[in-house]
Design goal:
189 residues; alpha/beta; Rossmann fold; six-stranded mixed beta sheet
Length: 189
């Protein structure tokens, strides 16, 4: 009897709708005022960076490949079709993130150290996240959409989602360093 009850509860739970922040959102959501797209850089083969990598020296980093560059261009085109033509674009200082941001072709790209990865530098985690929260809190809640090109670990720190390369989360600014997570945009292939 107990086993039947557990199986019944599990079946009912699986039939419930997912949380709103787990549902994929249409790209058009980004064109609304106060929206932030936190985008994981496009496909860059491999894992992490070489131990002696240098920010600003792309020859020492893991970089986008042809499929990653194509992925970033396609995402930019889809964002333009969805009505996103007046966005502020900021990027981590890593070459793969900067290249992704530029290939979106949505406007000038501003490097923002608060978007840098702390995957191989866990001691930088708190300073990066604190700085990013301050940056987000200062953005106008009814301002133009903002695109932040960053890394999986940064997106994970703000959400329960683990975006694939080229995947993202959408937020609504709320005047704090913890914008409201609205949902995800799956990987652009």
């Amino acid at each position: 009897m107990r086993r039947l009850l557990i199986l019944s509860l599990a079946a009912m739970a699986s039939a419930l709708p997912a949380r709103a922040d787990e549902l994929p959102l249409p790209l058009g959501e980004l064109a609304r005022p106060g929206r932030v797209l936190m985008l994981r850089h496009a496909h860059a083969p491999g894992f992490g960076d070489p131990p002696d990598f240098v920010i600003g020296d792309c020859s020492t980093q893991r970089n986008l490949d042809a499929s990653g560059r194509d992925q970033a261009r396609r995402l930019g085109a889809r964002l333009r079709v969805a009505g996103l033509s007046n966005a502020r674009v900021l990027s981590s200082q890593w070459c793969r993130a900067l290249e992704t941001a530029r290939l979106l072709a949505l406007g000038p790209v501003e490097p923002l150290p608060e978007l840098n990865s702390f995957f191989q530098r866990p001691g930088d985690r708190q300073a990066i996240l604190d700085g990013l929260r301050v940056f987000l809190a200062r953005l106008p809640v009814d301002g133009q959409p903002v695109i932040l090109v960053t890394h999986q670990v940064v997106v994970n720190a703000f959400t329960d989602a683990t975006p694939p390369a080229g995947g993202a989360s959408i937020f609504q600014l709320n005047g704090t360093g913890a914008p409201t997570w609205l949902g995800t945009i799956p990987e652009i292939r």
